[in-house]
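Collaborator request, handled under Task 6.
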Amino acid sequence: MKQLQKTCLFTFTLLGLVFGEQGLAETVTAVPTPPPVITIPKIPSTIPVVETQISTTQALSTEKSVPDTTLAVVESALPEPTVAQTEPAKTAVTESTSAVVPTSISPESAQKEQQLKDEDEDEAGSLEEQSVISEDEDNDPKPTTVDMRVVLSQKEKLENILKEYESLADKSGRPPQWTCINHSFRLKDQDPVLVTAKKQLHLLGFFAASKKGADLKFTSTFSKKLEAAVKQFQKRHFLEPDGIIGRKTCIALNMTPEERIKKIKLNLERWRELESSLQGKYVLVNIPTYKLYAMEDRKIDLTQPVIVGMKSRETPIFTSNMNSVVLNPAWGVPVSIFIKDKLRKVLQDPKYLSKSGFTVTDQDGDTVTDSSVDWSHVSLHHFPYTVRQLPGKNNALGAIKFNLDNKEAIYLHGTPQKNLFHKVARPFSSGCVRLESPQKLATWALKGTQYDNPQKLQEKINAGDTSAILLKKPIPVYFTYITVWVDGKEQVLFSDDPYNLDKKDYARFNL
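Structure tokens returned to the collaborator:
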């Protein structure tokens, strides 16, 4: 009898090792180990896989969520898209590699907690073993660090990235796909599509899976490991890193290697058009990645986040010259912006303009009180007034404005709305480009003058007078539209196409 008990115990132990925590009724079909992760130059030889013998894992560090504060900005702000929270009737899954996944989930919270804990143990993947971005790596490099003095060789870097994705496309076959609907998945959720999402993240090197023999194991639970992987993926695709799989994250996950290859080729063509012009000292504003680069001798002197024009008021793609820096500027409000953004506020509060530092003059140049004007009779075609906002802490241009030569009245300037820089995607302006740190760009542009000292520049600003400082030599400013970028940490960033220009340029370059 004891021998029989030992035999039975051995048999159940063996079955447990074969089928894992899912039980005998559930199996996970083997998926081929994908090729190397796409990141240069530190490309691992294999996608991270953790053997089941590992019994302990290092907890992933979770980052603080980005505040989702929508402000009443001075010019205008796009409404944030809302995600429907209703439960989908059925989620369609289409993928080349088949998998049998659980179709029924126990509603008991204790069981869900245990499943979540078990999955975190089984789907091993410490930060050292996963090719993901750490929170520190995502921070913008500071001007004093060595990272800031790297040569901007985006074309060469993208050429290397292209080779990696071509290799990935050759080896991976048809990648898994799933239908993107107006539903979001988050920590502790359970759904068969999460198996597909994990396979997609694994293919791109963001998610480590446990391994049994030649098979990779993916479960249908939204684990903490998956949440951390989703956050890293979102950072690389200019999505809010909330760790929630919504429609935008689903669309980015469904981008195939072939689609990424096409996008890389498009941006290589854009760089080839630019490279001959990028010489000496210049400023490059890349709209889709919301970043500004101050360059000299093909080296980055300064970089900072920016806010660009919303889709309905695009920042144009053009080249201009910066000729002067204006301290404590006044803002002459364009009639179109007043009608679209200010008129509603004025009608609601007759004293809105005076309280916000605006002055109003009539056609004769005489100052009038805002409450004395019948604002219900003004329009784009009938506006016999000039509205200006005086310098001050609430001025829409901030403390510094950079004048550019162009007919569209596009320029660079500061902003009092600093909270908008917390967002990943920043298309909020009426066309001009708002800077997070205009003082830093000003001291760089005014190099060789008495105001290239940050302290002296700030003293001049604190004096309160409006003054324009001419540059010794105009500095070219290039407004570009590069939707695939390699950052200072050699990480590939795929941005959204905020103005839908990729499709137009695919046709222009016959891609």
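The cover message to the collaborator said: "The first strand starts at residue 49 and ends at 51. The CA atoms of residues 42 and 490 lie 8 Å apart. Please let us know whether this matches your experimental observations."
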